[in-house]
């Protein structure tokens, strides 16, 4: 199902103040399409012109359903359509799972999961009820997950929980779409990216107070922090502008390939995810006899389609 996007196409992107979101926004703008850029503070969006008819800057709190609805309505009011949504806003929450404050944990899930869910619901409505009668194009939802939506690292449990939930919801919702709606879903799983997400004072990372029982120096979180704070670590991470170009090319179909369910970004993401899936497959094989012993025969999977 190839994309049919021309220069009048409208992209809405969350989390555009910096990092990947900023690179996505610049790539779309340079493409000549219309771009709706969002952030909690619109002053962080000054890298795009205020007076361009192809740019709409919106203050957006992704933890507020009302704010999300207003952003989508403002987009349709200005451009009359919405073609691509990129759910990008997010941040990391590091800490020992036993002691992370509940308020922090809930806010992480609100940001990584519920915000994208509400935006997906609004986007699908517009794709089906606004776009199709006027443009017959449907739309594309891009959910920026992470290699952390497949692999796990100790000390990062609530971030993983949010990304695992996002991936499961995205895949299931995609299966609900009727072919005639022409609505596509893409999950993106970046690994390390050379942005301010990890290791600057204004990073997209929050570190909860450590629990003394876990903070021994050789624990998973201490090792992770040691790695991310190392000056050598970013040398192997992905270039955000290259990630943005790959995403745009994938959505537009210029790669010559069909849109995948999941697009990994970065050598580390490919390596870690493959390793995790290989471990899972081996475990399934090792326990196949025991697993099948509790059922009377072969499974009927016809309902999956």
UniProtKB/TrEMBL annotation:
Q: Which domain of life is it from?
A: Eukaryota
* Keywords (A to Z) from UniProt: Oxidoreductase
Q: Is Oxidoreductase one of the keywords UniProt gives this record?
A: yes
Which CDD domains does the entry link to?
17beta-HSD-like_SDR_c
GO molecular function list? oxidoreductase activity
What family, per the record?
Belongs to the short-chain dehydrogenases/reductases (SDR) family.
Q: What is this protein called?
A: 3-oxoacyl-[acyl-carrier-protein] reductase, putative
Organism, as annotated: Talaromyces stipitatus (strain ATCC 10500 / CBS 375.48 / QM 6759 / NRRL 1006)
Which lineage is the organism of this entry classified under, starting from the top rank?
Answer: Eukaryota, Fungi, Dikarya, Ascomycota, Pezizomycotina
């Amino acid at each position: 199902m190839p994309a049919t996007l021309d220069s009048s196409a409208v992209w809405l992107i969350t989390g555009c103040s910096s990092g990947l979101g900023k690179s996505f926004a610049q790539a779309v703008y340079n493409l000549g399409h219309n771009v709706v850029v969002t952030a909690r503070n619109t002053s962080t969006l000054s890298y795009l012109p205020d007076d361009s008819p192809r740019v709409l800057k919106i203050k957006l709190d992704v933890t507020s359903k009302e704010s999300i609805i207003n952003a989508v309505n403002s987009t349709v009011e200005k451009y009359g359509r919405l073609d691509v949504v990129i759910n990008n806003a997010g941040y990391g929450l590091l800490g020992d799972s036993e002691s992370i404050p509940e308020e922090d944990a809930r806010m992480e899930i609100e940001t990584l999961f519920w915000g994208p869910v509400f935006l997906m619901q609004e986007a699908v409505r517009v794709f089906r009820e606004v776009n199709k009668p006027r443009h017959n194009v449907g739309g594309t939802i891009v959910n920026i997950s992470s290699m952390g939506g497949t692999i796990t690292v100790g000390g990062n449990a609530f971030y993983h929980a949010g990304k695992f939930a996002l991936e499961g919801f995205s895949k299931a919702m995609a299966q609900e779409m009727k072919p005639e709606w022409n609505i596509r879903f893409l999950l993106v799983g970046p690994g390390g990216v050379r942005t301010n997400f990890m290791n600057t004072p204004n990073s997209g990372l929050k570190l909860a107070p450590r629990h003394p029982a876990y903070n021994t120096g050789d624990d998973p979180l201490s090792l992770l922090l040691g790695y991310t704070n190392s000056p050598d670590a970013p040398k192997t991470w992905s270039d955000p502008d290259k990630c943005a170009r790959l995403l745009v090319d994938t959505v537009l179909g210029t790669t010559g390939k069909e849109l995948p369910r999941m697009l990994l970004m970065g050598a580390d993401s490919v390596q870690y995810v493959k390793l995790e899936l290989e471990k899972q497959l081996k475990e399934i094989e090792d326990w196949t006899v025991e697993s099948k012993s509790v059922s009377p025969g072969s499974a009927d999977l016809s309902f999956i389609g």
